[in-house]
Design goal:
Helices cover 45% and strands 12% of the residues. The protein has 115 residues and is of the alpha+beta class. A three-stranded antiparallel beta sheet has the order 1-3-2. A hairpin with a 2-residue loop joins strand 2 and strand 3 (77-82). Helix 1 (17-24) packs antiparallel against helix 4. The longest helix is centred in the middle third of the chain and has 14 residues, at 53-66. The radius of gyration is 15 Å and the shape is globular.
């Protein structure tokens, strides 16, 4: 039986804000995005080492299907990368805002600014 093809990632012009926000709205997925924010590819075992495999699979699938990350298979390993350029093209400033607010205390100014 042939190996299953790597599922396609949505094209940049097909990314939907509601899907991206839903994916970023979970603390585990937000942490995955934060770890990928450097722009370097990372082996999925490095990004989420402390979760059960089924949880990791679910979170990575959600991020991939929403267009937040892409994955690339190499041998038996999956490498992940943040789709920073695509997200910036489709939703300018969104990723930077989300990452900046994630690193500040809850009572910081980013929580008080209107969108």
């Amino acid at each position: 039986m042939p190996a299953a093809a790597d599922p396609p990632h949505p094209a940049a012009d097909r990314l939907e804000l509601v899907d991206v926000l839903a994916a970023l709205g979970h603390p585990v997925r937000l942490e995955i995005v934060r770890r990928l924010a450097s722009g370097e590819e990372a082996f999925c075992g490095e990004v989420v080492p402390d979760l059960p495999r089924s949880s990791v699979t679910h979170h990575l699938k959600t991020l991939r299907e929403s267009g937040v990350i892409c994955r690339r298979a190499q041998g038996r390993r999956l490498y992940l990368a943040l789709r920073r350029d695509d997200l910036e093209l489709r939703f300018p400033g969104l990723l930077e805002l989300v990452l900046a607010c994630r690193s500040r205390p809850l009572d910081s100014e980013c929580d008080e600014q209107p969108l």
